[in-house]
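Reading group handout, session on sequence-to-structure problems. Before we discuss, look at one worked example. The prompt was deliberately terse, the way you'd type it at a terminal:

> structure Deferrochelatase

The input record follows.
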Amino acid sequence: MADQSTPEAPAEGTSSQLKKAVISRRRLLGTAGATGLALGTVGGAAGYAAASTEKPTPLASLGADRAMFHGKHQPGITDALQARGHLVAFDLAAGAGRKEAAALLRRWSTTAARLMAGEAATHDDTGVARDAGPSSLTITFGFGNGFFSRTGLEKQRPSALDPLPDFSSDHLDPSRSNGDLWVQIGANDALVAFHALRTLQKETGGAARLRWQMNGFNRSPGATERPMTARNLMGQIDGTRNPQPADTDFDQRIFVPASGDPAWMANGSYAVVRRIRMLLDDWEKLSAKAQEEVIGRRKADGAPLSGGTETTAMDLDKTGADGSPVVPMNAHARISRPDQNGGAAMLRRPFSFHDGFDADGTPDAGLLFVCWQADPVRGFVPVQRKLDRGDALSSYIRHEASGLFAVPGGAAEGEYVGQRLLEG
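And the output record:
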């Protein structure tokens, strides 16, 4: 829960892109039996639309917004936070190896490109998202440590994918941690997100089995008059100092360079995933002032306790009338700052979660923490080690699940994600 903010989504660009996005699933599904079409391409989508006699479902701008599947980087990393998310991990099935993994990634990539364009799945589409557009759907794929031994690709396993060290605050459930394959799904329509989840899960066939799955949410885009940094379930503005794509060193910190090692990870990134339960009953007993001292920022507007606005630089040397630091020495925002951790930085892109209540009424709620970096040894690990030693927030959270995944660069047109690894 480092003190960093989420970047704005890049502009979608041309009116032609929006016209393509407006082609709804309802219109496409009406011609599911059409033949001779280049499925998964713009021409294929146009053919579907031309053959349909149904009028397209009108879409608001929220439904028409479209993220691109093909590109230098995978989607779902620098895109703006979406209202709904699913994180899911799979293990390769017994007997499945490199050949089966390649076929699965090929299927998944084809389907992801279609769904992100607002099109129906190629086979047996459920119709769940029939009346929806793309709704900013993003689908991201990654590989866990065990994937490489299961596919005979141990020599291609990156050293950055070595298991994370143990932290004293960990209470990890192995059954909800790690995994051979990881999928991140985000969308601004809950049905669109579920449709993607269900479609990809069905397409695993006999190649993989579900290991764990988690559901999350954020504030809906457009709910506020202007874009604002998200709040978490503690009521705190969460993510004020996230790296921004406009930063001169953004790519260096977040993405593996084109000349990186191994070569198949060029333009990729490493995702650390943590299920962080918030001990809300204890947190909510604190006064607002005490909560602010734990975080180091004002609850109302996210401004540092040293003064200013949310984006004002924190004055770590400022003291109060009694001579003590205005921002406590163990405040979360102080400890997690990059300049307090040798410049370590990561791009946070989390979802909140609420999975009901325990028998005693305790909420099972918190943060699905997802952060991106070029190297977790220089990003997540040093920050978490420092938080582990004295973060005031540690008394009010519990890390219950963890995973580290290598997320390769984006797939070009005609390629599938991970092709350079699996066919290299």
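Points for discussion. First: Confidence is low (pLDDT under 50) at residues 5-52. Second: DSSP finds 13 helices and nine strands in the chain.
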